[in-house]
Amino acid sequence: MLAKVWNILSDAGVDSKRDSTISRYIILTNRFGVITGLITIIILALLFFQIRDIGWTITRILVLISALLFFSIILLNKFGFYNLSRWVISWLPAILIVSISITDKLYLPQLTTIKDFFTFRFLLMATAIIPLLVFNTENYKLLLFNLIPSFVGTVLFDLLHKPFGVGFNQLGFNDPHFYMVDIMVALAYFGLIGFLLNQRKVTDSFELQLSREQKKLTKKFDELHHLNAFINKQNCEITTQSDKIKETNEELKKAKGTIESQKKLLEAQNKNLENQVLEKTKDLSRVHEELIINNNELRQFSHTLSHNLKSPVATFQGLLNLIEMDGLNDANKVLLGYLNQSVDKMQEVFSDMNEILELRNRLYTSIAHVDIKKAIDQLHNSFYPEIRNNGISFNCDCNGLKVLKTNEKRLNGILFQLISNSIKFRSIERKPEIKIKFNGTASYHSIKIWDNGIGIDLRKYGNKLFYPFQKFNNHTVGKGLGLYLVKLQTESLGGSVYIKSEPDSFTEVEVRLKK
Question: Dihedral sign, CA of 384, 409, 353, 436?
Answer without folding.
Answer: negative
